[in-house]
Design a protein that fits this description.
Blueprint lengths: L1 E2 L7 E4 L2 E5 L5 E4 L3 E5 L1 E2 L6 E2 L6 H7 L17 H4 L2 E4 L14 E2 L8 E2 L4 E2 L17 E9 L11 E4 L7 E3 L16 E12 L5 E7 L5 E2 L12 E3 L9 E3 L5 E6 L6 H4 L1 H4 L14 H13 L6 E2 L2 H14 L7 H4 L7 E2 H10 L5
Parallel strand pairs: 1-16, 9-10
Antiparallel strand pairs: 2-3, 4-11, 4-13, 5-8, 5-12, 6-7, 12-15, 13-14, 16-20, 17-19, 18-19, 21-22
C-alpha cells in the first residue's frame, strides 16, 4: 500500500466551512486478510464477481465450490475461482505456504486454524504489506478487492484510530457475518475500480499498488456533517468532554508493468528485473526507477553492490537503453569520485542527477 505525499497545510471546503485544516490521525489501522482481482461487480448486490467471463465449462473446471476451513464444521466462503485471483495474502493466513486461506479469519480460533492479529496501519510509511509473487489467470480485471475478514464469529475489533493527543486508540467494528449491522461493522469486501481495466496476458509480471491520502481522514472538531457509514464518531475514553471522527481514506489501485512485452530481446526483461526481489519499501516508487534499479542488480553479478569490470558496465548500459534511461550514459558519469568503480550509492545518485523520478 502506498501512502501519497501529504501536506500539513492542505485544506478543504464543506458546506459553510471553508479552508479548514485537513487533519491526519496518528494511527489508523484495520484488519486485512487478502486482496483479489475481480472482473465485474454484481449489479444487484455490488459484490465482486470472479471468473465472470469464463465459459461455463471453464468455471466448473476452475472451481466455484467453496473451499472449507480445515478446522470445525464451517461453511466455506472462498471459492476456488476467487482464490485463484488473489494477489496479496496476509502472511499470518498462510504460514504453511500451501496457498489456502479459507482456514483463516480474524477471530474464532475454535473454528479457524489461522487467526490474524496483526494490523495494516495506514499511517506507517512505507506500509509493511510486503509484495509476494502470486500467479493469477490471464484476463481483464476491472476491480481490486480488499477482504477484511471471513466471518468474524467472535466479533473481534476490525478498525482502530488514534489522534489529537488521544492516550488510547478508539476501536470499532466487530459484528460478525450473521449480524444485521452493515459496513463498517460487518465483514465486507472493499471493491475499488482500476482507472483503466487491467489486462493480464500469459507471462506478464504486474505490480498492483493501493494508493491513498490521509489528510481529511480525521477530525478532532467535527462539524456535525459526519455520518455513518462514511464516518466513525466517538468520545475518547480519556477525554469525555471531546468528540472526534475518523474515516478510512479512499483507496486507489494503481498498476505498474513493463512496456516491453514483445520481441526476443525484451522477452526476458521482466524476469531479469523481477519485482518480487525488490525491497518492500521501494514498491511505491516510479516504475522506470524500479527498472533502473533492476538494471544495476542484474549487472552486479556477485551481489557486491559494486560495478568494476567492463562486462558489468556492458550489461548495465544495454539494460538502460532497453528501458529508455540514460541512453547516452558513460562510465565516467556514474563514477562520481573517479575511483574507476561505481557503488550502488553512486548509481542512485546518478539517477537523481538525471532527474529520474522516484
Amino acid at each position: 500500500m502506498c501512502r501519497s505525499n501529504s501536506s500539513a497545510a492542505a485544506t478543504e471546503n464543506e458546506g459553510n466551512k471553508t479552508g479548514f485544516l485537513l487533519e491526519e490521525p496518528e494511527s489508523l489501522r484495520f484488519k486485512l486478510l487478502a486482496v483479489y482481482l475481480a472482473e465485474e461487480l454484481n449489479q444487484t448486490t455490488q459484490g465482486p464477481i470472479y471468473g465472470a467471463h469464463l465459459p461455463e465449462n471453464a468455471v466448473k473446471l476452475e472451481g466455484q465450490a467453496p473451499m472449507k476451513p480445515r478446522a470445525g464444521p464451517a461453511v466455506g466462503l472462498i471459492s476456488a475461482t476467487q482464490n485463484a485471483r488473489r494477489i496479496w495474502t496476509n502472511p499470518a493466513c498462510d504460514i504453511d505456504g500451501d496457498g489456502i486461506i479459507s482456514d483463516c479469519d480474524i477471530s474464532a480460533s475454535w473454528k479457524y486454524s489461522r487467526v490474524v492479529s496483526n494490523w495494516v496501519d495506514l499511517v506507517q510509511d512505507p506500509n509493511p504489506t510486503n509484495p509476494v509473487r502470486h500467479n493469477v489467470p490471464a484476463g481483464t480485471y476491472r476491480f481490486a478487492v480488499l477482504q477484511t475478514c471471513l466471518q468474524n464469529l467472535d466479533s473481534a475489533t476490525m478498525y482502530e484510530v488514534q489522534g489529537a493527543d488521544m492516550g488510547t486508540r478508539h476501536a470499532w467494528g466487530g459484528a460478525n457475518a450473521t449480524s444485521p449491522l452493515k459496513w463498517p461493522n460487518k465483514c465486507f469486501h472493499l471493491t475499488r475500480p482500476f482507472a483503466t481495466p487491467l489486462v493480464v496476458e500469459h507471462g506478464d509480471e504486474v505490480v498492483v499498488t493501493l494508493s491513498y491520502s490521509l489528510p481529511g481522514s480525521f477530525r478532532s472538531l467535527p462539524f456535525g456533517s459526519e455520518h455513518r457509514p462514511d464516518w466513525e464518531c466517538f468520545v475518547p475514553v480519556d477525554d469525555p468532554d471531546r468528540r472526534h471522527c475518523a474515516r478510512l481514506p479512499a483507496i486507489t489501485p494503481v498498476v505498474h508493468r513493463s512496456k516491453y512485452r514483445s520481441g526476443n530481446e525484451d522477452a526476458g526483461l521482466i524476469e531479469d528485473f523481477s519485482l518480487s526481489m525488490m525491497p518492500p519499501s521501494t514498491m511505491c516508487y516510479d516504475w522506470r526507477y524500479l527498472q533502473a534499479i533492476g538494471a544495476f542488480q542484474m549487472a552486479d553479478y556477485d551481489g557486491s553492490n559494486l560495478l568494476i569490470y567492463g562486462n558489468e558496465f556492458d550489461v548495465l548500459f544495454r539494460s538502460l537503453r532497453r528501458i529508455g534511461v540514460g541512453i547516452d550514459a558513460t562510465r565516467g558519469e556514474l563514477d562520481s569520485d573517479g575511483d574507476s568503480r561505481v557503488t550502488y550509492e553512486e548509481y542512485v545518485g546518478w539517477l537523481t542527477r538525471i532527474g529520474l523520478p522516484t
